[in-house]
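Exercise 3.2. Students should predict the tertiary structure of the chain below and write it as structure tokens, then compare their answer with the key that follows.

Predict this chain's 3D structure.
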Amino acid sequence: MRIRLIAATGLVALLLAGCGDTFAEQSLIGAGAGAGTAAILDGNVAIGALVGAAGNVAYCNQYPDRC
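Answer key:
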């Protein structure tokens, strides 16, 4: 389980490093990060994708200078 957590953390960090310039890019990158993390952690991939997309869009809207 520890290796999965480390892999999930690395995946999220890698995918969030490329936030995207448009709303669509931000949504897709976030969805990929969330789905990948959920798959690694044996969670619900669809919910992971939704949470990831929402999280990345919210982050990029809150901190546009970092994206």
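Discussion points: The radius of gyration is 11 Å. DSSP finds three helices and no strands in the chain.
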